[in-house]
Amino acid sequence: MDNSAVLREWFQRVDSNSTGNITAPQLKSAFAVGNLEFPLSIVQQMIRMYDFDRNGTMNFEEFVALNKFLLKVQNAFSSLDRRGLGFLTPDDVYEALVKLGFSLDSPAFYTLCEQSFQFF
């Protein structure tokens, strides 16, 4: 079964009332089955980002676009998490941003990380 067929099957299972659209709570529950625990507010934001027809739900095409984005994020994370820790350190993020061409003030970056996240 190709990836499109797998995604279609998955989408149809999540769309339990067969409307052709899934809601944020349905998507959140589906993520949870795959051990991906996102707050509902994050799932709602994902839907807003990919709700191209602006109906407040996600159709199959929008779901495919979200899936592509999540796979890119997962692949990027995996390439940055070279030590296999399951999280990124500020050094990992700093290195990635510099490789992407961002010119960062190192002390300011680490100060921001310290103030914004509980890394240290």
From TrEMBL:
InterPro entries given in the database record: EF-hand-dom_pair, EF_Hand_1_Ca_BS, EF_hand_dom, Peflin/Sorcin_CaBP
All residue ranges annotated as the EF-hand domain in the record: 2-37, 38-73
Chief place where the protein resides: cytoplasm
SMART domains for this protein: EFh
Location(s), subcellular: Cytoplasm
UniProt GO MF annotations: calcium ion binding; calcium-dependent protein binding
GO cellular component: cytoplasm
Name used for this protein in its record: EF-hand domain-containing protein
